[in-house]
Every structure is written in C-alpha cells, then in structure tokens.
TrEMBL record:
Coiled coil: none
InterPro entries named in the record: Pirin, Pirin_C_dom, Pirin_N_dom, RmlC-like_jellyroll, RmlC_Cupin_sf
Family: Belongs to the pirin family.
Pfam families, A to Z: Pirin, Pirin_C
Signal peptide location: none
Protein origin, superkingdom: Bacteria
Family matches, as Gene3D superfamilies: Jelly Rolls (2.60.120.10)
UniProt protein name: Pirin
Domain spans labelled Pirin N-terminal: 17-123
C-alpha cells in the first residue's frame, strides 16, 4: 500500500511574478487547517521598479503565514504594523473579520539582485474566530526550535514534533516544519497529526520508496509513520494538522464558512469600507475586486 494519498503538481500563475500554487487543488482542497499554498520564486527584481510588489488587498477568515528562504519583503497592514520579513522568520497575520495589507520588495533587495524565494500559506480560522479581531505576530528565526534528528536539521515553525513545541500561536492544531537533509539521509515522519503533507522545495526524495520531485506536494495517508529518504541534498516542508471545523469557501483573498460572509466582504471592499478593513498608513493604492 502506498504511503501517498495524492501527488499535487500545482499550477504556475503570474501574480506580477511567477508562483506555483499547490492548494487548493482538485485532489485536496485542504491539509489540516491549510487552505492555500503558494511557492514563490526564486526571482530577482529590477531596481527602480515596483515589480513583485503586492499592493494593498483585503483578507477575511484566515491567517496568512509567510516564510522566506532568501530575500526579504516589507509587510504593512491596517493595524499599523510595519515589519520586514526575513528568511527563517514566521509572520502570522490573522485577518478575522477584516484586514488590509501590502507586501513590497525592499530597495536593498532589488539593488543587490537578491532572489526572493519563499512560501505563503493561508490557514483557515475556526468558525468562532473568523469574525474576530485582526492581529499580527512576528516570530524571529531564533524564536523557533532547531531540532537535529539523525541526518535531518529541522526548524519547527508551528505545532509539536519530535518532543519540541514551537512558540508560534495557532488557532487550531497545526504542524509546519522546514527541514534540510543530506543526500542518502533518512527521516521518519510520525503520524502525530491526522493530516500531513510533504513538499520538496529543492532536491529530490522518496517517501517509503516512492519518488517525490521538487515542486510536488505529497498528501500522506493518515495513521502511519512514513520514511523520507533524500536522493540529493534536499530542502523540504512538512505541513498539516487536524481537519478544520467544516468546509470553507475560498474566493479571491477571502476565506469563510458561509457564502454570505464572502458576499459581505465583497461589498465592503468595493465600497472601501474602512469600518470593516481599515486603511494602511502611508498607502494610497489598492487592488480592486476581480471582475470574475
């Protein structure tokens, strides 16, 4: 029996720069509380341009989780937070009933031709929190445990694993790990959570002998330990957790347990209702609703 339930190759999309979108997918719309998974870059941006900048846009009902391997982004939001996002740090923004943020490429990253490379995830908020207050939390790289397990070096970004616990505050049981492993090394992935997936960022691996190439998300079968073996030096992510409390609707940047909440958010953003979304100090641009 295979340890892999689904292999998701994702679709490359252009959002001003190329990203590979792994979730939601036809085979699996969620993994634990994760409802969205974009792999961005690596990409270099020209000096004196706004290439790669994500202008102010809204969210409801989710938490954005940004993690970089290289480069940097400057986060600004309607809470007044201004935070430079750097490799190894975790930035966890809970939208609740509404927030606006922008993410822009800093000038020094453009001028130095430093590749921007990272992941952006969305985590669905539980129903009792999806209409709560927005919040933002930044966790520096050294805040989260570094774990050596055999040949693997792990950075525990969220949840519990291998006897350690991340300080990152989550809204539901969540697992998120960044790992590196040398060619020929192995790592047992225990069945501590109901839903798990493995994503190879660079390199190549096998899962109980089945090949897993870079850029492919493997959804694992529940309830069994799985052996990851590196075929070359490999950078990988493990994500998952417990299932969310019911299905979610995802439209544009909005996630909600009901279509009514989505429609209400559309109306509020079209009207630029500051009582719902607020405004980012110093920002004058905004991304309008999609036509479709």
């Amino acid at each position: 029996m295979s340890s892999i339930r689904h292999l998701i190759h994702g679709l490359v999309r252009d959002i001003g720069f190329p990203v590979r979108r792994l979730l939601p997918a036809a085979a699996a719309r969620t993994v634990g509380p994760f409802v969205f998974f974009d792999h961005m870059g690596p990409v270099e941006f020209d000096s004196g341009t706004t290439e790669g900048d994500v202008r102010p846009h809204p969210h409801i009902g989710l938490a954005t989780v940004t993690y970089l391997f290289s480069g940097a982004m400057m986060h600004r939001d309607s809470l007044g937070v201004v935070q430079r996002i750097t490799p190894g740090a975790v930035n966890w923004m809970a939208a609740g009933r509404g927030i606006v943020h922008s993410e822009r490429v800093p000038d020094d990253i453009r001028d130095g031709k430093v590749p921007v490379h990272g992941l952006q995830m969305w985590v669905a908020l539980p129903k009792d929190q999806e209409q709560g207050n927005a919040s933002f939390h930044h966790y520096a790289e050294d805040d989260m445990p570094r774990i050596e397990v055999g040949a693997a070096s792990l950075h525990l970004l969220a949840g519990k694993a291998y006897g350690h616990e991340s300080p990152v505050k989550t809204s539901s049981p969540t697992l998120y790990v960044c790992g590196r492993i040398k060619a020929g090394g192995t790592l047992s992935l225990p069945a501590d959570y109901s839903e798990r997936a493995v994503y190879v960022v660079t390199g190549a691996a096998t899962l109980d002998g089945e090949a897993l190439e870079a850029g492919v998300l493997a959804i694992l079968e529940p309830g069994i330990d799985v052996l990851l073996t590196a075929q070359s030096d490999t950078l990988f992510m493990v994500l998952g957790g417990e299932p969310i409390d019911g299905p979610r609707f995802v439209w544009w940047n909005f996630v909600a347990s009901s279509k009514e909440l989505i429609e209400s958010a559309k109306l509020a953003w079209r009207a630029q209702d500051r009582a719902v979304f607020g405004v980012i100090p110093g920002e004058v641009e905004w991304i309008p609703l999609p036509e479709k």
